[in-house]
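Form 7-S
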Amino acid sequence: MNMICTTCHRSYPLQARFCVTCGRPLMPSKSTSRPAPELRSVAVLLAIVVTIAATLAVLGAARSAGQSQRDYSNLPTLSATPFLSPSKTDSVYDLLAPKDIRVVVGRRQESGLVLTGTSDEIDALTAFAELLGRHADVAPETVKDHVGKLHGQWNTTRTYKMPKSKARALYRILAADDVPVLVSRGERHLTVKATAADQQTVSRVVRIMQGDRRP
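Output:
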């Protein structure tokens, strides 16, 4: 900033008080007292762009997770599945981990998994965990024969259509020797033979995997 004579328009150092030509008092120059309008406009524009980009990123993340319309704060939680083996625990985690599945899956813990969803979803997953661990106490060398003796009780057969990756993940769980169902897999479907009760359990889990679509 410098001093200027409003009559002569001569510029003087900041410490000057009077014009040496006309003797009038000097005034501070206004040319540097405020930022240039162009700079202010650019700063405002950048702030708007950054705000819009951040908002779109948050909305996009929520939409991709398929959970933007659900409040999880008051939903029930299945906090442990201790009767599942570590390998089955990992398989169930991988089955429910995709972002388009609305159940929230906690990280693996020593006691099992932490799952959060509606009461119906938690009830279905509890029944599914019981199905997977029902014969866990049978010796590995005899479990296949043990489960094979139950084939006569499997009186329902149903085919479930789903994406290839989900069909593969569910097949890997149901095809275990100690799980009392008979399962076969196509590229984008599973066919399950089981008792009526166990078929209903599988159906409810498939419904969770597929959102609002029906198998």
